[in-house]
Amino acid sequence: MHRALQIPELLLDIFQAGEYEKCDLLPLALVCSVWNAVAVAVLWEEPKATSLLKLLPLDAWRVVKSMPNSGSIFAGSKPIERFAIVRPLTASDWERVLKRSCYVRSLRWDADYDYDESNLDQSVYSRILASPPPATLFPALRDLTCAARNPKSAQVIQLFLAPSLGRFVMMFYPWRGVRVTDIAATLAALGRRCPHLRVLGFDSYNYQDIPWLDFTLLENAIVDLARASGGALTTLSINMPCSAVFLPSFARCSSLVDVSVENQTPEGLAIPTYPSDGFPALCSLALTGISIRSASALVKSWGRRAMEDISISTLSDVTSRTLLDFTQAVSDHCKPRALHLILIRASASLFGEIEVAEPFAVRHAHLAPLRAFSELEMLVIKASRGSRITDTEYADLARSWPHLNTINLTGMCERDTPAVATLKALLPFAQCRELTDISLELNAVAVPPHTTSPAQVVNDKVTSLSVGDAPIGVNSFAVALYLSKVYPKLDTVQYECNPELEDEGEPETVRRQERWSTVETIFRTARNLKVPVEELQTLSRNLKTSIEDMCAVYGDHKDEDEGDWDVY
What Gene3D superfamilies does this protein's entry cite (predicted)? Predict the structure, then answer.
């Protein structure tokens, strides 16, 4: 064997970069002692928690079956397999575990089940706390995702914290008896023991509709943790009830690049005061359940910022005026060539109910301030009544965003405010060469002339078109033919109506659904037969059949392993 293949550092790079499966690494571990040491280290970099626990003596553990917890969404289903520790542990029981846990870089602890179920029995927590490992369990741990599902979870999680930790994500289930004080203590320990923490995520789940706890203690613990990070913390993702002063508390954290806060209480509608020029390193901002006026105040508090992503999913305070104020603030305080994504949802669901402050439609005036962002790749603005933008105005906007990848300006499909844009509105967006997904509210009753489009307005990357609650004429083929001239690679044409109208089987809704479904089927038929849409007419005449009958035969989804369909 060449000496180079006995250098551990080189072998480590090869084994990691090669993306080997575990079954591939096992034979490599048998080559020689040098290869064994490196292969074993790679094998245990990202183990399952139960795989580590199974290194305990065989008489110390067992996999048991138990029914889901009462009140769980899985209640009444089949038993769940859980790992259990069946006897008290000793220091010697941990020897095999410690021999492998020193290699662990990434760990998911009790985070493999969704919601409030666990694959770890309660005995695991009580036994570990009664006889913890005699040494640091994960001295090289860099990434920890964990769930606090029972009263002892937080104390066990503290045993995993190590100075090497760079990413920490916790899910918190308060109705299972987990105390806020224990979670706050864990966050405090995180701040003391993990000076290199770069990513902090915290999700609080409250699916049982119990009254919200006082989260002030957790707010303070998270703020203290961020301030104690010494400039290392770059990413903050919080999902829990927040007070109005929570977000401004991070304004002086000079290292924060990515901030995501999802508030779960109406208190998010309050408008706090932000210090001037806060969040100096911020590039990505995502706020849910936070007042759009608060978001505007935040944007206005800084100078000219190189923001890359802005996402606002607010509750019920978005009106035509506050939306215009926000887009103008973004235009005034964000560098034009930096911003790539803007997402604004003007209505959001809070505990299952849709709240809207003022029914309104997005108009050209709301979007005009955003024309300066020539590098924009994604624009999503969903108002209660969608958009009311003309063909000419769409042409003006499309010229401003040549790098657009996705545009979505649909809403809640209110039938009383019909769309004013026609199929012509799609034509200027064909010049956006990276565009793949379009969602615009259109009126397709009248079909423009379907003469061959100039080459410069044909886009072969667009595969998805959503038309909202678009009215459509009786000639679905004419609509499909026009669309194919501009977007020949269309794969999905989606019609979206008000769910209440759909449930009631309202006749006009049924007609629109059927006709837009026919448009999509025509594209699928042409794709299956590997011919352009315009040739379907000639093909149907040659076969002495109708396009409708051809679509019925050849318009189904074709499996990838099926061969070509021969129509002759």
Answer: Ribonuclease Inhibitor (3.80.10.10)
Q: Looking at this protein, which amino acid is placed at residue 530?
A: K
How many whole angstroms separate alpha carbon 405 and alpha carbon 548? 33
Is residue 101 a contact partner of residue 111, using CB atoms and an 8 Å limit? no
In this prediction the pTM is 0.85
Residue 78: Cβ-neighbour burial (10 angstroms; 0-12, 13-18, 19+): exposed
Instruction: Give every CB contact of residue 149 below 8 A, 6+ residues apart in sequence.
Output: 110, 116, 118, 173, 176, 178
Q: List residues bridging with 202 in a β-sheet.
A: 170, 238
Q: What H or E segment, with its residue span, contains residue 5? A: none
| Pairing assessment for the beta strands 80-85 and 406-408 based on DSSP bridges | unpaired
Three-class DSSP category at 219: helix
Phi and psi at 119, nearest 5°, equal -95, 10
Tens digits of residue pLDDT in 75-92? 556 778 889 999 999 999
Q: Which helix (H) or strand (E) is 108 found in, with range?
A: strand 106-109
The partner residues of 64 in beta bridges, in order of sequence, read: 82
| Tokens 């079954």, located at residue | 23
What's the rounded Cα separation, in Å, for the pair 273 and 271?
7
Task: Give the tokens for residue 50.
Answer: 């139960």
Structural tokens at position 2 = 């060449």
Q: How far apart are CA 547 and CA 555, in angstroms?
A: 10
Residue 69: per-residue pLDDT? 64
Taking the CA of residue 540 as centre, how many other CA atoms within 13 Å lie in the half-sphere pointing to its CB?
Answer: 20
